Amino acid sequence: MSSLLESCKLIDQSSSALSTVAVAVAALSCEAARANLSAFDLTDPGDGSVAKDDIGVSSDIKVLLHGSKLAVSSNKGDDNVNKNSFSKILDVYGNVREAVKSLHSAIRVVANSGQKLSGKVLHLCFELRNLGESGLERVRLNLDSVSIEGLKNIFENDCLSEERLRSGVKLAVDAELEKDHVKLVKDVDSVLGIVWKIVAWEAVTAFFVLEGDEVLNEKNGGKGGEADGGNVKAEKKKKKKVLLGRGTSLIVEMIKDRLMSKGDGLEKIVVEFLSFLDPKSPDFDGLLKKVKEILESNESRRIPKTPKGTRDFAKEQMAIRKKAFSIITKVFERHCATALDTPAFELKETLTGKYGEDSKLIYDLADQGGELCSLRYDLTVPFSRYVAMNGLTSFKRYHIDKVWRRDNPSKGRYREFYQCDFDIAGQYEKMGPDFEVVRILSEVLNALNIGDYEIKLNHRKLLDGVLEICGVPPTKFRTICSSIDKLDKQSFEQVKREMVEEKGLSVETAGKIGTFVKIRGPPLELLSKIMGEGEGSELLKHNASKEALGDLSLLFDALDKSRCIDKLVFDLSLARGLDYYTGVIFEAAFKGGVQVGSIGAGGRYDNLIGNFGTKQVPAVGMSLGIERVLTIMEEKAQNQAVRATETQVLVAVLGDKLSVAAELVSELWDVDIKAEYKVHKKVMKHIEYAIDSKIPWMIIVGERELNEGILKLKNIETTNEEVIPRSKLVEELQKRLSP
Asked: Which ranges carry the Aminoacyl-transfer RNA synthetases class-II family profile domain (predicted)?
């Protein structure tokens, strides 16, 4: 075991070095191919949806290429090159880093427990193969661009290929199947050696694309000509020196210093170069140290970051959010609600005991002068506190604001996020408010135009009746509801195991619950079936569930007449884990391609307001999961042009006279025209800005226009220009901007 462990440690050490050096080599290839760096525009969204190692690779590539004039950060690069050879770098190299870390952690455990390493070693082998194949693509791409004859022949003599990689991996897989772990480690080490050779060749070919002519000319005393059978193609004029990235330029200079001190001739130079990137070479540690120094000097690592589960919103995202909030507010105000705002934090006692098992997710604040406070978990409890504190007996309000939960971030799940709530408190006709809030949720989702969705609906009393019929003690109703609420994420067998092993139900009781929670279907059809014979017989004998079925009958009839029942599903598995629900409960789920979970929910809570005062005021409300809805909208907008501003006119002043711009743009602002200005000598700079910002109109004014009392009015879409009198600026623009 000790020799096997030592061999694994050597693989761990070598592959760790590879994961660092390979990224630096890939950066050289980016410059050799003039690749588009947009593939590396990866940031941490704060929700755990992007692998940390992918983000690390992205950051390292950008550090190495910072300041480069070869690798570009716009669509001016070769998109096909980028897609075919560079877009996979983050995923492939990030996976290698993750596999290396996994093996390293396993080695530490093994040293203490004797746990087998074969699975981790084989996983690393697969990821190394992917890295090798990715590197070979760029080696060939570089060879197609290199201006030095003979280099391709030297490479081909090394017999590096995808087939050789796959054969090595197959040997490792066979060894694992045969439980021959010593052979497995040996075979993986062989694959690692092949990958190192590929990475070295990628460095060689990228370097010769960038600096090969210069190095060979210097080695030949500036005469050019032949070098060990390989011609340096004569150049008619000296190449213009192109600026490399800060990191890659240091690596290139280090390689040049090494090569200039060694033997002449192309083949000898290549051999020396490959030796430099051999991890067994005595000089390799110097190269590795230099690469690490460059990466660790990364200033971006010292830039402040947002906390986990939070994120910043760029201008395009803010445009989408602003549009969504406007649509939602319009629907809420159509239903005659008034806006309400409450503090971002409440007394801890206000929030305690309202959220069941989720109470552990409340953010507590440090003691501030004797008051224990917590950030609000939702908008419903503060609303209930407000109604009770002010002695209100009826109130229809909406509230759009941030809430905070100490949750584990995941895709569409954050620790800081907006909620959009609509609640109706007070005594009204039976099921009237319940109908309206479900209708409002449907209206909002339709207005946002996100795609197909469904609203699952149940009744808390019906669920309580099911639990009582199944034999669940009343003291366990809420905790079992929390388990049932997980059925949209887990199988019933997983939930059943939790109810039996963690919450003490018998297998028989849990199994009986399963027969009920699997019941779902169209509301009117399923309700009619339950009210008849068969499944409904036990529920109709139970007072609470019978009352609930009566409520649902009224609700479904109203929703049917309101023409929105086609989006509803009557689902007996819907539980909603919050403790304060007492009646109808509902939850909306998106049915499109983006997996985001619940996008809206709500229900009746008749006793919550009474917890804060002397009077019980019944209430029902809904909350839109706006962050998840926005995730869907952002996905849909990826292939669409999103305007970050609503600018209608750009005032383009040719020259440096701010006063001219101030005079013109102020006239437009005064009449409520959305305008901005730019002062620059070059007209194309103005036009490019207008095109990039999707501004439809431009006013162009230079010395000639000022002297003649005219302005140029340019339509950006059609490129048509016309001359207008300076005095009629506002009149002419209003004429064109009016619908």
From this structure: 398-633
Q: Which amino acid does the sequence have at 692?
A: D
Number of domains the chain contains: 3
Strands 568-571 and 453-459: parallel
How is residue 176 written in tokens? 């694992």
Tokens of 205: 């070919």
- Closest by CA to 430, choosing from 308, 563, 583, is 583
Query: Containing domain of residue 704, as a range?
Result: 649-737
283 is a domain residue:
yes
Token pair listed for 260:
């200039």
Q: 3-state DSSP call for residue 410? A: strand
Residue 382 has pLDDT above 90, yes or no: yes
Residue 413 DSSP code: B
Instruction: Name residue 678's amino acid.
Output: K
Evaluated on CA atoms 53, 55, 60, 61, the torsion sign reads positive
Query: Could you read off the pLDDT of 4-63 as tens digits, one per residue?
Result: 888 899 999 999 999 999 999 999 999 888 887 777 776 666 655 567 788 888 888 888
DSSP 8-state symbol, 312: -
The whole-angstrom separation of Cα 332 and Cα 397 is 9
Q: Which of 275, 300, 325 is the last residue in one of the domains?
A: 300
CA distance 737 to 739: 6
Rounded to an integer, what is the distance from CA 708 to the centroid of its chain? 54
| Short-list 585, 583, 586, 587, CA closest to 548 | 583
Asked whether residue 429 is assigned to any structural domain, the reply reads yes
Which CATH number belongs to the domain containing residue 10 in this structure? 1.20.200.10
Domain identity same for 165 and 262: yes
Helix H segments across 372-476?
380-389, 432-448, 460-470
> How far is it, in rounded angstroms, from Cα 437 to Cα 448?
17
Residue after which a domain boundary falls, among 620, 639, 658: 639
| Lowest mean pLDDT segment, chosen from 6-10, 77-81, 701-705, 722-726 | 77-81
Question: In sequence order, what are the residues at sequence separation of 6 or more whose Cβ sits closer than 8 angstroms to the Cβ of residue 305?
Answer: 44
Q: What is each CA distance from 101 to 146, 184, 300, 437, 486, in whole angstroms?
A: 36, 19, 23, 50, 32
Same domain for 40 and 126? yes
Q: Is residue 516 part of a domain?
A: no
Q: What is the C-alpha radius of gyration for the chain, rounded to an integer number of angstroms?
A: 34
Structure confidence at residue 187 as a pLDDT band (50, 70, 90): very high
Predicted local distance difference test score (pLDDT) of residue 34: 87
| Global confidence as pTM | 0.65
Q: How far is it, in rounded angstroms, from Cα 230 to Cα 219?
A: 13
The amino acid that residue 369 corresponds to is G
The residue type at 20: T
202 with 190: CB under 8 angstroms? no
Rounded to the nearest angstrom, the gap between the alpha carbon of residue 55 and the centroid of all alpha carbons in its chain is 11
Pair (41, 59) in one structural domain: yes
Cβ(394)–Cβ(426) below 8 Å: yes
Q: Would you say 610 and 389 are in contact if contact means Cβ atoms under 8 Å apart?
A: no
Q: How far is CA 600 from the centre of its chain?
A: 20
Q: Are 211 and 254 in contact (CB under 8 A)?
A: no
Say if residue 131 is in the same domain as residue 280. Answer: yes
Judged by DSSP in three states, 398 sits in: strand
Residues 325 and 266 in one domain: no
Q: Tell me the β-bridge partners of 713.
A: 699, 722
pLDDT at residue 73, as a whole number: 58
Locate 523 and state its tokens. Answer: 């509301």
CATH number, residue 327 = 3.30.930.10
Which CATH number characterizes residue 708's domain? Answer: 3.40.50.800
Q: Which residues pair with 604 in a beta bridge?
A: 620
Would you give the DSSP letter of residue 103? H
Residue 540 lies in a domain: no
Clarify whether residues 253 and 289 are in a common domain: yes
The residue with tokens 């009117």 is 524
Tokens 């504190």 locate to 389
Per DSSP, the three-state class of 615 is coil
Q: Are residues 142 and 288 in the same domain?
A: yes
